[in-house]
Amino acid sequence: MRFGLIWSEVGNGLRRNLSMVVSVVLVTFISLTFVGTAVLLQLQIGQMKTYWYDRAQVAVYLCTPTDNCASGPASDQTVEAVKKQLESPELSPYIQKFYFQDQKQGYEQFKEQFKGNQIADFVTPDMIPQTFWVNLKDPNQSAVLTETLSGSAGVQSVVDQRSYLDQIFSILNAASYTAIGVAALMLVAAVLLIATTIRLSAFSRRREIGIMRLVGASNRFIQTPFIIEGVIAALVGSILASVVIGLGVQFFVRGYLSERIQSINFVGMEQAWLVIPILVVIGVVLAAASANFAIKRYLKV
């Protein structure tokens, strides 16, 4: 009986303040969409760094049969010669560590990194160069390695990976932090709007609240319908944000971007399913806390 009465009060409150409830839904939806976007951007940055940024500072690519190198494809002697140069007294003081990756290892890594990407179907093992991945003690001294090895026989190119990856990650981080900032402001607006909605709802039902107090209803019994109202509005906004995030990843990221930018392995639904519960929890917890605070303050007045 008490349970049915609570839900009856919740329904009355939602109907009486429908416009405010819709506002709460929209603000929660927009703010949590920004939160989800920011989280996915960070996951994307982390995924890219795992494969590119954290592996090497400088890549020494050896010639393959498909390259137009004057010395021809790199041989075992070429690999040994480059290794000796890296271990030489001239270069070893600048190098923290390095490792060699043959064509088979490179091809397997490429297939794993770009699994599900169409570009993986057009790449063969002979197209993947043998590579020395070098970590420098000081990334700013990569020019020493580049100048020393660029003219060596069998070396196709020496590429400083960080020179352009830093710019890409800086842009992505800036976009992610911007989304987080906007999301934080929108979440504050959502919390304030929920609190205002609950107080207006309580004010419009002040006679009912007075009657419930006279018949001995506890504060918890009076507060519960208002808290549920806030939670329902925020839950609807959270679900809408989750749907938009899921559709965006499925159709825009995987269906549009991944087909046009095949050199990047974008986040997929696996990451989206990790983000969606976070959005729902954030929406519900913030709504419950805000509504609980607002109605407690009102009952103390």
Structural overview:
- This protein has about 300 residues and is of the alpha+beta class.
- It is about 70% helix and about 10% strand.
- A four-stranded antiparallel β-sheet has the order 2-3-1-4.
- Helix 2 (about 20-55) packs across helix 8 (about 220-260) and helix 8 (about 220-260) runs antiparallel to helix 9 (about 270-300).
- It starts with a helix and ends with a helix.
State the main characteristics.
301 residues, four-stranded antiparallel β-sheet
Main sheet summary: 4 strands, antiparallel
What is the CA-based Rg, rounded?
29 Å
- In DSSP terms (H or I, runs of 4 or more residues), the helix count works out at 9
Please indicate the percent range of residues in DSSP E strands (runs of 2 or more): 5-15%
Shape: elongated
Percent of residues in helices: 55-70%
Structural class: alpha+beta
The overall strand count is 4
Spatial order of the strands forming the largest sheet: 2-3-1-4
List unreliable stretches of 5+ residues. Answer: none
